Amino acid sequence: MILALLFACVDDTADTSKAADSGDSGAPDTQETGDTGDYPGAEVNGVVTDPDGTPLPDFRVNVCRSLCMTARTGADGSYTLAGLSPEVASYYVQGDETLGYATPYAPITWVVDDVVTIDIQLLHLGDTEYTDGGPSYHVGDLAIAFADGDMADIYDDPITYVTATEAPEGSRPPLETSETVLAVYYLAPFEAHGSATIAPSLTWGLAAGSTVNAWYAAEPIESGWVHGGALTVDEAGTGYTGTATIEAFTTVMFTAP
């Protein structure tokens, strides 16, 4: 048996420059800035590299809620964003799927006067399965099945593939949880919407009856980790009972209390 998680993905702001061009009033506004001036708020800085540790210039680092603040990485992969509002807002690097990178994405609580360093190692897109109109796919350690209708990206183009990229510790943004993190996956196409179920094939060695919590990273307009549901390892210790609901192809996190 395997765990099943119900997806109902929603429209969002995967590429804020595209969202601005589209005229979508539900998307956050984008303010691109390299200014590190004296504004009240938090600051985040760091370096963006590829999987081999090579700096990546001219990549966009975003912190989004009602407003997106954006910085581009320099020749050495470094970036700085200052004057971040004291709230929960979504941090992500536009890894550009056309270049083969998954999108690291996580909600983070920003505090006035805090200076936070986040070095991000972009990951190549993981196992990919081409949909070809079929109802279900096995993608790496995940099984995905469309529950009703086709999946579509934020511009309603038909989905032609699904990808799940596992993000190991050290290559992902900070995860605000007091629980033990079992696994984190970046899903693509980033911010696809529709309805689907997802099922890990792993129980991470947990005993029968153990609880696994499923979380998803909400869209930037909302931001925050949303609890999709609690699942229970079955008696055989090889799968789960129960379901959990998530709403976007962004980041999915599995934790143990």
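The above is record 1. Record 2 follows with the same two-line structure.
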Amino acid sequence: MRPPSTDSVRSKINKAGKHLPAARPRPLAARPRRAVLAAAAVGAVTAATLGYNFIAAPSSAASRTTASGRTAVANSSQLFDPVASIRLSKHRSSVTAMARSQRAFLAREAARRAHLAAARRASARLAAHRAAVHAAAAAAAAHGPSCTGPVTGPVPQNYGAIVDFLATHGYSGLAAAGIAGNIYQESMGNPESVGTGGGGLIGWTPLPGGFVTGNPAADLQTQLQALLTYNQQWSQYVPMLNAATSATQAAYIYMTYFERPGIPAAANREAAAAAVATACHL
């Protein structure tokens, strides 16, 4: 029997090789358990050295089945990421700080709004008070001084008529009281008063004719009209007189710049002016 030829053997080998399965790499489950356990041990030692936690696979499961071995390898790679942990901690701190800042801002905003509301209420009350004061002043100016109060000091006769007349002819209430205080010193408010060389309410010297006729009511009106004319010769001082802030100040201004008496007796004039202001609610 002849031995098979080389070509024949080669042909049979090629035909047989077509039916052989393709070579594949060994799966993880088919690898030795010693390598799996070694990888898990390395991961555990590394984590312990760095001070981080990791999820360890049960050694019993890894030793029993190849599937448990794969789980151990997978879990050994799930180490705690320090960078991610730091980022997460910073993020949480940032969120907490932002929330705290927002709460503080809202508290400050609420306090600011409450303060503004209180300021607006106070401003409204002040405006209402000012309006009431202005209304009262306007009403007093419209009706003139009310000389109905008790007399607590020296006042001239007819002081109410004198103050009312002057207040309706451009003088302030305090200016009218200051003039009345000077009239008290000159004539006690008696239009029929006559002295040496003069007479009348402010002691005109010489006394003009028709000022004292024996009719006190008529003479009072005549002399009050004449008083307006007399004051006009010192008109530059009228604004200062009306700007007086007290009856005593007005009395001094009238005595100094209008009356110009030889015997000042300023204390008497100022005391009478103060009494008139009290009686007339000025």
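The chain has eleven helices and no strands.
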